Amino acid sequence: MSFKDKTNIFFGDNGSGKTNILESISLLGKGRGIRNSQIFNLIQHNKENFLINSSLEIEKNNYDINVLSKKNNNKLYKQTLVNNDSSSENLNFLNSSISFLIFLPEMERLFQSSPSYRRNFIDRLIYSYNNSYNKIINKYKKKIQERSRILQLKTFDTSWINVVETEISQIGLEIYSLRALQIKVLNEYLNIINKNNDYKFNISFKLDDSFYSHNLNQEIYLSSLLKSREIDMKIGGSKIGPHKSDFYVNIDSQYNASQLSTGQQKTVVLMTLLAQCYYLVNNKNIKPIILFDEICSHLDSNNRKLLLDMIDSFDIQFFLTGTEKTLFSFISTNVQYYNIV
């Protein structure tokens, strides 16, 4: 398939494969795609592997990108080749050149879902301009698990757990800092787009974490980890840290976004993605690839305006899916349709 450099719309029945196309595109970047699928779930039934071949233009240069599944010691993993080369230099170049902003249908109930889902939503926004962020998150999770295993031992080396907790506090503070910056960026650009447009809500994000404060430092963090060892020994994990954070959104400084209808929550999500897009393009010189799956549900006049504003405001590539072509009739120019059957 050849794609238009502006807006590409895939339409067809449920289960026809529209989301698979978006997932294939997202797999060109780092990670396991928009659905964060296990590798074996990316392979067609009764097949041994998958292969995605793509020609990608970066700064007017064309690159052949192959993404495929490989098996080593009975363990599946994803391999990416840039011009048939899998060197770290080429992969770092590719990962630093690709950024995604993603909408999935379940985001329509973002503010009524679990705290972990909201954390992942914010973390994906950070990852859209910081492609090493997932390493930070993964390292933090491993250290929390290592500390938990140590605490389950009848006796353990105090110096060992002290080293682990030092690492946890360092990484935890870094995650807190990056998330605080992301919230600041969102609120700043949400204010900007509200001043320039007549959108339905004034919204502001806020971190919800009883442990975190702006004066949190490593000394306080380490002291708190030490004090929580006994309870963490009983319940597992750690009762403090960025893995316990939540986020909430104030609407017009009056009520929480969780009180909104599904369609109104979608409005908030689209406003957030629009604000992030402005930040990436204007402050980071990044042109994200937009992957919006089943975007047309609950698409009232407010949400159509938001989607159109995003398409009209940026010279970036869009990939949208929906069940019927007519649902996208409000997008009138510079668009290519694909009927997926």
β-strand amount? 15-25%
Mean pLDDT: 95
Q: Could you state the oligomeric state of the chains shown?
A: single chain
In whole angstroms, the N-to-C terminal distance is 14 Å
Helix-strand sequence: EHEEEHEHHHEHHEEHEHEE
| Spatial sequence of strands, sheet with the most strands | 5-9-10-1-11
Note the main sheet.
Answer: 5 strands, parallel
Low-confidence stretches: none
- Total count of helical runs of at least 4 residues: 9
Give the helix level as a range of percent: 40-55%
Whole-angstrom Rg? 22 Å
Class of secondary structure makeup: alpha/beta
Note the topology.
Layout: E1 7-11, H1 18-26, E2 51-58, E3 61-72, E4 75-82, H2 88-97, E5 100-103, H3 115-127, H4 133-151, H5 158-196, E6 203-208, H6 218-227, H7 229-235, E7 246-251, E8 255-256, H8 262-283, E9 289-292, H9 301-313, E10 318-322, E11 335-339
Parallel strand pairs: 1-10, 1-11, 5-9, 9-10
Antiparallel strand pairs: 2-3, 3-4, 6-7, 7-8
